[in-house]
Amino acid sequence: MNWPLRIGIVGTLLLLFIVLAGPLMAPYSMDDFSKYKTVQTELGEMKTIAPPYPPSQEHLLGTDRVGRDMLSILLRGARVTLLFAAGVATISMLLALPLSLAGVSYPRTVGWLIEKASMAATTVPMVLVVVMVAGIYRFSPLLSISQNLLITGMLLVAVGLFQNAHLLQTRINTILKYPFMEGVRSIGAGKVKAFRKHVVPHLSIHLGVLYVTEIANTLWIIAQLGLLSVFLGGALLEAIPGLPPAARIPEEWAGRLGASYGLFRSYPMLVLYPALAISFAVLSFNLLADGIRKYNERKWGIEFK
Amino acid sequence: MRRRMWLALALLFVLIAGTTWIVDSATTNHIQIEDVADRPSKGEFVFSANDYKQGILSYLHDLQAGDLGSLHLFVKGRETTTDMLQFVLERAWRSALTLLPSLLLGIVIGVGAGIVTFFLPKTVRQLLHAWNQLVFSTPDVLWVFILILLVIQIDQWAGFPLIKVAEVGGQRAVVLPIASVALPITSYMYFYTVHAVGEFLMGDVVRAARSKGLPGRIVFMKYVMRPATDSLLTVIPKMAAMAASSLVVVEYVYNIFGVTWYMGENPKLTATLMMALAIFVIGIQWISSLLRLWLNPLLRKQVEL
């Protein structure tokens, strides 16, 4: 087993554990926030301080600007952030596979369209397209959180779909040109059987690598979106007296990044903690994808670019 | 056996996920989600598809006539009218000052590091590879923050603001934004170069040239770098699109009023700005295609045919 695969597996298992048990391990809920705290100074005087509080025994990573525990935010946020990314990648793969098959079957129409749409998708940054479309609905209070998550997810699937389909289409075309496929055709095997028995096993490794990479890419985009104030689940940008402002899912990592961004110069760790959490996830998934690719290349002697 | 193992693992995962969900629900330690307190009724907002369609048709009509329209801006409290094209060109120029040098710098450093790797001792090579893997797998958002913190630290050591967003030591230079955009590109280009050079280094042509006694430098430049450059030129448009994507974050964080800053402000302006970005990426595609034609005689022959 190669090193990227080992590190990738450990990182992914750790993330999986946090997704499952994060909320259970979190010492505080999202409703636990304190606006002010009275502390004793070195001179013995009593002083009232406002959050964000620095790391202490009470709050290991400190608090955010309304006094919520940062560690709890990260532990709870893993579930919504990572499941969203995995969900987007799953739907993208489920749609890209039949689309790529249609592209292979009808290369002059569907195949051509996929290729051109994929090229068009690379000319404009995906994050801009999402920000522009999200601008129509993101502040709408008419949408519930789940509706908002669904629309943002579909939007992310749509912007990356043709590129994934094009990659798969190219891969299937390469497999179809292998000499053993000519052999399969010459002995009269049907299209479905040839696909199931000979294309799918070769494609599965590539599909796995692409799936894990897509999770990392989705996390990368939602980090950028969070910074640009497109939060998963929508956003409450106005402060309601007595209630903490900003994201509607307060623990979501990318939203946390965007909500704390204004305080970066004064309290950099408020921004760096969620940024590091997302980066750790992206790094783990990228290393896992790289490791799977290298492992199979070495095992089968075939290149999985 | 393998199928059974995967099935057992999947069942174990479902079991753990189910148990966690039940325990979460029983202890009411589920993720708290904020909701909108004063949700408006469904009929309060009406979306007019007809108005939207009219807007698009009007824009396309003006575009056909070569008129991009004008913008109403408030400058120092006064309303002024500016030509849209003029406005976009000014923004594009500002963005180009960051985008083009960073693309060039990223490509040169990445390709340079990729070539140098083959002449380095194993330990240094592994270190360089690990560094690039880290940069490759970490979101650009984190690198932007790390670079800002690094600059703050340098300024503190210097005792005065040595590096600013658009200044270095009193001289006008957008070093910080350029470095932020260029950093991910260097790692991508490094990996592409290592892969491309590695592929051609093992070729029969190289072995034959070496056996004839040709100097190593000539063999490397003529039989390795020349075909590898053709492969590298194909990924440059992808790098341009990636740089444009990073530019969104960089312009937002560093307050650069470039192309991406005004996205979403006004639909007509957004469409024109998107076109400017697309023209940039397509322009890079053309340049790289022309360079490939110049380098690759086989491609030239195909075009002539």
Question: Could you explain how this protein is built, in words?
Answer:
The complex is a heterodimer of chains A (305) and B (305). Chain A is mainly alpha-helical and 305 residues long. Chain A is 68% helix and 4% strand. Chain A has nine helices and four strands, in the order αββααααααββαα. Chain A has helices at residues 3-25, 70-105, 107-123, 126-137, 145-176, 179-186, 191-227, 253-260, 268-300; strands at residues 37-40, 46-49, 235-236, 246-247. Chain A has a two-stranded antiparallel sheet. A two-stranded antiparallel sheet of chain A has the order 3-4. In chain A, a hairpin with a 5-residue loop joins strand 1 (37-40) and strand 2 (46-49). In chain A, helix 4 packs across helix 7. Chain A is elongated and about 90 Å long. The mean pLDDT of chain A is 85. With 305 residues, chain B is mainly alpha-helical. In chain B, 72% of the residues lie in helices and 5% in strands. Chain B contains ten helices and four strands. Chain B has helices at 2-26, 49-64, 84-117, 122-136, 140-158, 175-201, 204-211, 216-253, 267-295, 297-304, and strands at 70-75, 78-83, 167-168, 171-172. In chain B, strands 1-2 form a two-stranded antiparallel ribbon. In chain B, strands 3-4 form a two-stranded antiparallel sheet. In chain B, a hairpin with a 2-residue loop joins strand 1 (70-75) and strand 2. In chain B, helix 6 packs antiparallel against helix 8 and helix 8 packs antiparallel against helix 9. The termini of chain B are far apart. Chains A and B meet through helix 1, helix 2, helix 4, helix 7 and helix 9 of A and helix 1, helix 4, helix 5, helix 8 and helix 9 of B.
